[in-house]
Design brief:
Layout lengths: L1 E5 L4 H11 L6 E5 L2 E4 L3 H5 L7 E5 L5 H6 L6
Antiparallel strand pairs: 1-4, 2-3, 2-4
Length: 75
């Protein structure tokens, strides 16, 4: 598992982020405090407090392609 801090500023960022991560077949979650949602769910992400950074949890060791594609969101 790999954890990465990301920042999603608005609904457009969330839409773009989800369109990128849904292309990957491994599990990806977002954690904000004690709340965890599927990173491929727009509604799940919008239910989080996006005023601060959130933790992206990737459940695979081979995620370099994902990291490169979401680089604009990484803090």
């Amino acid at each position: 598992m790999k954890s990465i801090l990301i920042k999603l500023k608005n609904a457009d960022d969330v839409k773009k982020f989800v369109s990128i991560v849904e292309k990957y077949d491994f599990e990806i979650d977002l954690r904000c405090g004690r709340h965890v949602v599927n990173a491929k769910s727009i509604l799940g992400i919008l239910s989080l407090d996006l005023s601060d950074t959130v933790v992206l949890e990737v459940y695979t060791d081979d995620c370099m392609s994902l990291i490169e594609n979401i680089g604009e969101f990484i803090v």
